[in-house]
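Researcher: We plan to redesign the surface later, but first we want a full-length starting point. Tokens attached.
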């Protein structure tokens, strides 16, 4: 019997979720698109707003540019600031590295702060970030 080792590559989405869940202040409360009902802050919700395959003179290549919106919710404004700093450090730290350990290598990264706001219901603070990344799909 032959034993084959199967190598499974992590997608960018899974790698991003892994990286963000590693931020201790979020207590692994990182959700795609929408948080489950009843989840208590702080938590982070992310969504891919667009992605495109890039091309060169020879045509379409496996390089991808993707934009993700990240929304952080916290009951305390100071905690919001602290978590936002941790999130930015984590994201900037993946530049030129493989996301999630074995995911795609990040070739370029732009991080834009979209601002903070107060949300009356559920009496919380919100901070939004826009992440644009270039990576090679393998």
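Model: Full-length starting sequence:
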């Amino acid at each position: 019997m032959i034993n084959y080792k199967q190598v499974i590559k992590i997608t960018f989405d899974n790698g991003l979720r892994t990286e963000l869940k590693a931020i201790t202040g979020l207590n692994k409360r990182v959700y795609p698109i929408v948080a489950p009902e009843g989840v208590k802050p702080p938590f982070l919700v992310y969504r891919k707003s667009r992605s495109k395959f890039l091309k060169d003179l020879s045509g379409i290549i496996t390089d991808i540019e993707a934009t993700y919106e990240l929304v952080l919710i916290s009951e305390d404004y100071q905690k919001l600031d602290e978590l936002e700093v941790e999130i930015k450090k984590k994201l900037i730290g993946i530049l030129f590295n493989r996301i999630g350990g074995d995911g795609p290598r990040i070739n370029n990264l732009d991080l834009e702060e979209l601002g903070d706001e107060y949300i009356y219901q559920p009496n919380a603070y919100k901070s939004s970030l826009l992440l644009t990344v270039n990576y090679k799909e393998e």
